[in-house]
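Protein modeling request. Please complete all fields; requests missing the sequence field cannot be processed.
Requester role: graduate student
Desired output: 3D structure, token encoding
Chains: 1
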Amino acid sequence: MIKEFTEKIKSREIDVVQHTRKVLNEIKTLNKEYNYFNTISEELALEQAEKLRSNPKGRLAGVPISVKDCIVVKGVESTAGSRILKGYNPVFNATAVARCIDEGAIIIGKTSQDEFGFGGFSTNVGLDYKVPLNPFDKERATGGSSGGSGGISQKASFPHVSLGESTGGSIVNPASFCGVFGLCPTYGRVSRYGLMDYANSLDKIGPMSKSIEDAALVLEIISGSTSRESTSLNKPVENYSSFAGKGVKGMKIGVIKDAFAEGLDDAVRKKVWDGIKKLESEGAKYEEVSLPLTIKYGLSVYYIIATSEASTNLAKYCGMRYGKHEKLEGSFNEYFTKVRSKHFGKEAKRRIILGTFARMAGFRDAYYIKAMKVRTRIINEYKSLFKKYDLLVSPTVAILPPRFDEINKLSLLQNYMVDTLTVGPNLAGLPHLNVPVGFEKKGGKQLPVGMMLIGDHLQEAKLIQAGSVFGR
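Delivered output (472 residues):
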């Protein structure tokens, strides 16, 4: 765990530069086989390690941190997994990144993802990138869109946390498929400054790690408001690390029975119920509850809102001030069309078209405004349950990590439905956590199963408390 590692760095039992070189060699080897990084920031990592060697300090002293490619790192190519941003080297750090560096973290690279976060399997990677492979079976998906973060969090042999990002499930989904903890905080708990937006009202940055204690520590460090970003919440940050190991005795848990309906893999059902029973054996009490509106309409509402906001956010990548440039020829519309057609991938184009349609005059009220009204009702549905329950529980994803040949046979709608169980808490801005609850053998491979814990706004501490039951 991080705390023991940083003590050895500070006492100089471990040389931070030598350790960093070892880490870089390991991730280079892993990357050739699994494609977890779009960019490895070797020069920056060694520079940070050299500075730290003379004065090792901070809660993350010498800890390697990887960063999803849509979260900017100063001087390191940051593309959100898209060809249209190839060559972009930011002149500043995202707030979450800066806070990690201030505590002595070593930034080792930018992890692979679906282009701009548009996907649930991490197969919709940009035109110039390779698909990340599941750490348990290279013929299967890592989950998305923080696929590289999930994969390296599982495969790394060294103390490590990855900063992921979620819009509709992009932290907990790959955490489930890769068998790690993925903690998506309350909307606004972590500043979005330096995050390349997919959908402004949904995007959140959070930690992914093999250890719940490590994820809790990093969340504690990156949380808090900043004047640079208006949606960050000016609320006190709790000592999240102190809640790990506190136990769940007396907690009331609502099991979302709608999430156990037809279509749920039997192995996932069994392992998640094993997880629920484990919480009960530790002193928690559970009852079955229902979220009918969220389960029925959440996916539709999410895709209308998210694509509408995405089409607006991606409009700036037109080859003028932002994004790739081409030779100026023809009218502005012809030029913009050429740039965007050449440098956006298929899924990015699809979501831009869907979102632009939903925002058009004559359709805005019928789609976008109506979806926002239903979103409010979804928030209220969750809130009514949190009057009685400390946490809600469901499977994270309804299926085991699928093979790529299985994904290729899915329709577009079936691809989108992988987000069915994860869009609800994202729409409501609620904190949620993927907890690894076991493995199922399939095709000769042990595949991980994840259980999702959902808390009320700013109740990350309860998630950590319950999640630590599974981290022993």
